[in-house]
Each structure stands twice: as C-alpha cells, then as structure tokens.
Amino acid sequence: MLTNEQIVYVGNDWFADNRTSSHQIARLLAERNRMLYVEAAGQRAPTASRRDLAKIARKLGKAWADPLPVDGMHLFSPLIVPYHGLPMAGRLNRALLASSLRRACRKVGFDNPILWIILPHYASLAQTLPSKGVVYYVVDEYASMPGVDQARIRAMERLLLDRADVVFTISEELTRAKGAVNPHTYLSPHGVDTAHFNRAYYEDLPRPPELGEGSGPVVGFFGLIEDWLDLELVGYLAGRRPEYTFVMVGRVASDVAGLAAYPNVRFLGQRPYEEIPRYLRWFDVCHIPFKLNEVIVNSSPLKLKEYLAGGKPVVSVAINEVKKYEGLAFVAETYEQYLAHIDRALAEDSPAEALRRVRAMEGESWRSKIDTISQRVSAHIPGVRNE
To answer: Which CATH number covers residue 98?
Structure first.
C-alpha cells in the first residue's frame, strides 16, 4: 500500500447515507498515509427541497471551519457555488477551491500531496493545487447523471483526464471510454467490506422487527431509492408474488406512491451502515432492480458483492459487470425472466451454495484492491512510496 504520503482526497460526504467506494478506499489509505479528505458538493444544481436546503446549511456551517480530525484523517468541506453551468459560478468556484484548499493544506502541514479526485467538477484543482501527481477514480458516467449540465461535466472531466497521471474505472465500459483520452487508464473493480457483510452469514443476528413475522420469502434490497431504481419492475414482482415480501432498505428519494397498492412492498427508510448485515441476514434473496439507462449500463453495483459476501442469492437486471458473476448471480433480460430467477433462486438455495458465495468474495476485499491501486499509482507518479 502507499505509505507515508500526503493525500488530498476529494470524495463524497464522509457521513453520507451509504458507504461508497470513495469511503472504503479513503479509509484504507488513511491507515498508512496522512489524508485531507475533502467533502465534495453535488454536481447538480440544488432545489428548494428540505433535504437540499439542509445540506446547503450544513455545508455553509463547515466551510469556514479548519480541517477537523475524524476517523484518522482531516475532514474539510470547502465552499463552492453549486450552479456549475453559470460562467460566473465557474470562475468563482475555481478561485474559492484553490484558495481554501491551499489554506487547508497549510493547516495540516501538506506541502507536496497526491491529489486524488472522485468527482469531475473538482477538476480545476488539477490545475490550481500544487501536487506530486493526480489520480482520477471514476465510478460513474457522470455526464449522464440526472439533473446535471452534461456539456459542462464533460468539459470538466476532459480537463481531469488530460491532467491525471493515472485513471481508475470500475467497469470495462468506463475503461474504454476514459482510456481513449488517457492511456494510463486501468480497470479497478469494486471490492467489498468482507468482514462487515460476512456477519450476515457467520453471525446469528436477530430478525429486525420491521420485517414482521411473516412466513413467506423476503426479497431484499438495500441502497438509495433513487430515480435509477425500476419501481415498475418492483410492482410487477409484487403483484405476481403476493406471498413474497419485497423489502427496500434505504433513503427514499423517488416517488414510490405507485407501489402503495402492494401491501407486500415495504420501504423501511435509511438504516445505519453498521446495521445493514442484520437485515441482510434475514433476506432470502437479494436483488438489483435498476433501470438500464446509460448510467447503469456503465456501472458496477457495489451491492452485488455485498449481497454475495453475506451468502445470499442475487438476481439482477442485465448489467455487464454483473454478468461476469453469472453462476453466483442470476441475470435477467426481461421482467418475466427476473421473476423466474427469483423463484429459481429460492428453490435452489442451500447451505452449500451460500458458503460458495461467501468464499467467492474472500479474494475481493477492499484491502486487496487497494494494493493493486497503490502499485499503479507508484508506477505513474514519481517519488511515491509503496511498501
């Protein structure tokens, strides 16, 4: 792993609703390096929703504070204007980011850090923040995300791809797209927090009371309930299998009113990351009911390996990165096939199959992934230490 380096890491909110690859990689790097973790603002313009306004208020409260020691790192939330499409906002953000990050680096004693960026709308830092080298870690086709200025995000990402010393992507589709610009682009598949999700297999965790005492199978999902979820598919499944309970664990940020007619669909809301294995323990089948839009086609669902690490059978829509795990997961091309796969997963599951899934994830830990990433970084950024 990289060792004794200074790292300015631009990622998702550290205390966000769910633990992403951004969090997992940063957590491991911080074990042996000094890290300034920069909480990035979102790419889309905020709305007048209560959640967006509350988030803006929190950001403003943090923006004037010094970097805060948290979880073995320094946490910093710079102030930016969240309307990236406006020319004036772009110029202002460039100046604000440059000055605030330089000040934060001085506060924590950084003089020659590695700049590690997850989100392309912070690309200007690759030009304005003095660094030993630039790493760009791509987990989505950001320009295709809903509510963003696509042309603006593409221009920002092009700048970052041009400036990056090394680029990592989580799917082959993204590797091909970004590799066409930066030849030092590598596929870096998601890992999994095996110790955390293995608990659903190895520990006798109590049944959450929200699941009720029903005797029928539980088909479970955990993650954000966003627009990329195919709620029509969930309704199709619930209508044809009223004896199954479809449990959705996660913050609801989409209109789910259309599923109110199905008493066997339960939205439990957000649960702490620490509690997720308890729910996973009591799922009979896990699934990934995503819409196959451009964002999802280019994605690699982190929850696939989390489900498998808990020993659970998985059914998913036909995402290319999930197809690589056929034999461990069922992949469906149609609604009808999706339902048939759930029935088959229930019928064919066994203790031996559960153990096979758990063991298949033993070599997929985040720690093994960070070792490979570190080797690539040290190969492309001169003077980086990797021990």
So the answer is: 3.40.50.2000
> Is residue 22 very low, low, confident or very high in pLDDT (cuts 50, 70, 90)?
confident
Same domain assignment for residues 208 and 352 = yes
Q: Decide if 190 contacts 170 (C-beta within 8 A).
A: yes
Which pLDDT score is estimated for 62? 55
pLDDT digits (tens, 9 = 90+) for 303-313: 999 999 999 99
Q: Is 88 exposed, middle or buried (0-12, 13-18, 19+ CB in 10 A)?
A: exposed
pLDDT value of residue 249: 97
Range of the domain at 255: 194-360
Distance between CA atoms of residues 261 and 249, nearest Å = 19
> Which two tokens mark 229?
């979820």
Residue 181 lies in a domain: yes
- Is residue 116 helix, strand or coil? strand
Asked if 277 and 199 sit in the same domain, the reply is yes
Query: Which pLDDT score is estimated for 46?
Result: 45
| Alpha helix ranges (H) inside the chain | 21-32, 50-63, 87-108, 125-128, 150-163, 172-179, 194-197, 199-202, 231-240, 276-281, 294-297, 302-309, 320-323, 335-348, 351-360, 366-380
Whole-prediction pTM = 0.88
The H-assigned helical ranges of 110-211 are 125-128, 150-163, 172-179, 194-197, 199-202
239 and 184 together in one domain: no
